[in-house]
Amino acid sequence: MSVKLTMKEPYRGGKYLSLKMRGYFDLLRPFTLVAPFFVSMFIMFASLVFNDLIGEYPDWWITIGQASLTLAFLNAASNALNQATDVESDTLSKPYRPIPRGIVKKDEAQSIAYVLYLFALLRAVTINIWFGIFVFLIMVFTVIYSLPPRMKRFLFINQVWIAIPRGLLGILASWSVFGDPFQIEALVIGSIIMVFFIGAMTTKDIVDAEADKRTGIHTLVNTFGVKKAALISLPFMIVPFASVPVLILQGIIAEYFWPLTLYFLPSLLIFYLMLRHHESETLENVHAWSLMYVTYLFYAVTFVALMIFGQVGVIGIT
Q1: Domains by residue range for the chain, with CATH
Q2: What does the pLDDT look like over 167-178, one tens digit per residue?
Q3: Angle, CA 173 vertex, CA 269 and CA 256 arms, to 5°
Q4: What is the pLDDT of residues 279-297, one digit of tens each?
Q5: In angstroms, rounded to a whole number, what is the distance separating the alpha carbons of residues 159 and 262?
Q6: Helix or strand or coil: residue 279?
Q7: Residue 14 and residue 2 in contact, taking contact as beta carbons nearer than 8 Å
């Protein structure tokens, strides 16, 4: 019997993976873990190179792998908790998820979330204190997003609330593995992606618009409609990248970061796809939502590449 390959397919038994195990796998929403996992790896490596610390960390790749997995577990915990607290809404808009399907129980999902949170926190403090502090802050933001006072309920606050840990705090946590998390490069790169997320996170609410309204969650989409919500979100997706030349002219970041400005182009495409709001046949949301994660990943890759090659050109590293 063939196994379930994508989130929206019906649950089917398989030779090597039980329905229960597949339900647990879906509970963690692996697609949403891919970009943060690799982004954290790239940012950690950028911090290592920028601070010229490769010689001091002969096993740096092990540290990066462990820290990146820690952030992935933290993200997975957030996903599990969110589904455990969104059963009513998911039953309406995402009935294919494991809890509405009856594959995983709500209490099970919540318990899994708490175990993953605890594991991530305990693992984080063994890497270094700052990394542990940022993981704890991310944990607090994501828990309060789903549980009382449940910041997810409040218009616009919900988008800012989720953008802070996924954008700024996630970048600072990654940078802190090898460097000072308050270095200007980390603060700027984190702030840019945080503002981007404030706008781009609108994409996740398109499919859930009606279900959110019925369950007392106020979003830009179910308050103003998709078109107005997209227009409100657009400046947040464009301005942070458009501000890169200004930051360079002010001497805040190095000149070699100017190509980051070009990420206003995928932001425009996200806006266009939001207006069309076509739902993916395999992934959980609209195509604009998927592009948001892809943009996030390539933004981090570009940042690392520019930093490494920029350092070579500026200070003559060979």
Answers
A1: 19-315 (1.10.600)
A2: 999 999 999 999
A3: 55
A4: 777 778 889 999 999 999 9
A5: 24
A6: strand
A7: yes
